[in-house]
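Service request form, structural biology core

Requester: graduate student, group of Dr. S.
Request type: structure prediction, single chain
Budget code: on file
Notes: please return the result as structure tokens.

Sequence provided:
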Amino acid sequence: MLNFTNSCYLKVENNIYMTKNAIAWIREDFRIEHNPALSYATQNHENVIALFIYNKADFDHKREAQKWWLFKSLEIFKSELSKYKINLQVLAGDELDIFSKIKKKDDVSIYWNKIYEPDVIAKGKKIRDVFLKNEVEFKYFKGNILNEFQEVTKNDGTPFKVFTPFWRTAEQIYLNQPPSKNYIVKNKTKAINFFKNSIDLKNILPNKKWYEKFDKYWKVSENDSQKILKDLLEHKIKDYGTNRDIPSINGTSRLSPYLKFGQIHVNTIWKKCNELKSKGIGYRKYINELGWREFSHSLINYFPEFLKGNFRKEFDKFPWAKNEKFLKAWKKGMTGYPIVDAGMRELYETGWMHNRIRMVVGSFLVKHLRINWIEGEKHFRNCLLDFNKANNVAQWQWVAGCGADAAPYFRIFNPILQGEKFDKEGIYVKKWVPELNKVPAKFIHKPWEMEIKYQEAIKTIIGKDYPQPIVIHEKARAAALDAFQSLKKK
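Core staff response, request fulfilled:
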């Protein structure tokens, strides 16, 4: 890194002296609007360097799909920051090692926005201690969340375990806060570098080129997130309550990857939603989705064991099945249940899956196949562009019945009925499972019931052109209920 020992200190209000140079540490905040750390750095320092640290341990063999989104985010944000005369430098390594090398003599202050994950918070405390030891000025700010999780508790100070009272309380706390500041990013007069050995962004991309098709489905930028939000509010939110369950139509917000990487702040979404003159059931349903995101972050911080295993400890004795053949069929979308297979293929093709279908494929894995939810959580983590640790673990435990305020285990989605209810004509299925294109709507969610002469007539032989169901729904359901009952006997 470069040494700025010859630079002067700038005098700001209240007789506080600040360094001439600042580093805005970028993590999950690839945006100009509502970026407290970046704004503060540009408002109070002559020169600003944006820094992203690529820690391979956080991504390799864990979050392969998100490497693509990260690459695009860095590429686009670097271009956006250059308009403000701010360089974005990307280093590879461990955050603690890199920051340990910065000393007081380097004449630089460091700012960042918080991330609400226990391991990230723990590392942040170590980094803070290094800065204190090295006498480096630093400051951190509220992250991409409506309320700090410590702010939302019951009257007795204990954390909530049930969503509805949590969100009722959290909404009121947020509404009672003063309006958020308008975080302005100020133009700098010259762009400088602080670190040596910035990496080539292409080194972040996965070795396997399966991600290349993502370009067909996503535009990764802050500007695009604003367009998507505008489209949601103008065309979707009125009917969001019903349309969000129909996978064949574009009825969901699709903002989740942008929220994960911080191309948009949840405060911006909330504010725009509340500017709506007419607030119907669609508005309420969507706002509640933001609430579940808040609730998940509260759970993993008050109960960090949530991230490592079952929240309901009786499930530690659940007789999960180990079946690599079934797990592989589920991942590849070859279970013989069209609505399940469509969802799994959509995931692999686009890096995203419709929310209703996420519940269906999740239920199928943990109840029809009785495979531990942890296997599903790992697969989603690796394939989802919108993977969020709190949401992913909370949603999988909700489906499995072992989480906080979870769906009971004995509520088992029937994949046939789910398909018939939410994809009546099979439009979604035929999009992602094209080998079933000629199957009539009557049989699209149970093609094995077609007489063989009809299969031959449309040249779609079940067992050859498309697999037979790997399990029979009625038998799998009974086995799942027996397994659940066994918990009560232990």
